[in-house]
Amino acid sequence: MARGNWTRVEEFILMSFSSLPTEIQSLLFLTFLIIYLVTLMGNSLIILVTLADPMLHSPMYIFLNLSFLEIGFNLVIVPKMLGTLLASDTTISFLGCATQMYFSFFFGGAECFLLATMAYDRYVAICSPLHYAVIMNQRTCAKLAIASWFPGFPVATVQTTWLFSFPFCGTNKVNHFFCDSPPVLRLVCADTALFEIYAIVGTILVIMIPCLLILCSYTRIAATVLKIPSAKGKHKAFSTCSSHLLVVSLFYVSLSLIYFWPKSNNSPESKKLLSLSYTVVTPMLNPIIYSLRKNEVKNALGRTFRKKLILNNF
To answer: Rounded distance, CA 132 to CA 314, Å?
Structure first.
């Protein structure tokens, strides 16, 4: 139904990587499919091993619902992207686009606060080791982990509902591989100044507040570690944070380049590549960097498989 220049949009077209040759798209499909399967298997393995092995039920491993987040993030974005590459199924319904945007905001916001919670855990472990078991008891850890999921709700609900209440006109082509806010906003034919102010403020709050909490935690950690007299002690203290720092760096660098880099310096194609880093690549690397490289998890994997073999023999 058209009314003047306003059009009731019932579906969008995801441009994805349609500008690339078919051969390159096929190669991308195979690459992303492998990454997707590795992500699902790696994160699922971490969840199953953590639940199966009582020795991993220490406070830090309650925060492995990061694996749940990564699986959710992937399920929201990657299957549709693979469809656009393989079958040229580039259409997505109005409701489907809104749903995809909602959950990308929700999972992204939750991950920001979960990473901040993990930083606090490391701060307590290094700066107050004698009180760690009391402060970070399982009940507290469970509350912190669950609370990390809630900030994403208001941001996702308000921003998605507001954006999709605008009228759309002209083209319905979204120049991205998923329904992210900036490319969808370009299709709106109304004054979006107030919405853009809200979007900027909301993004800053969701990204920068956890980032500042992480910086504060690691500033205190660094000050504590520098007071340790032995080099071996310093190395051991820093090694307990290395996995978390890698995860934080991967996530925040790519996210900041997308949402805070000047628009004039970011072509749509470069934004797609940057988006791949936090929507596709980082979820695959997280279980490897954060968990599978830890001796506790490696030992737990060994124990779990040995138990499985013993049970199968009987």
So the answer is: 41
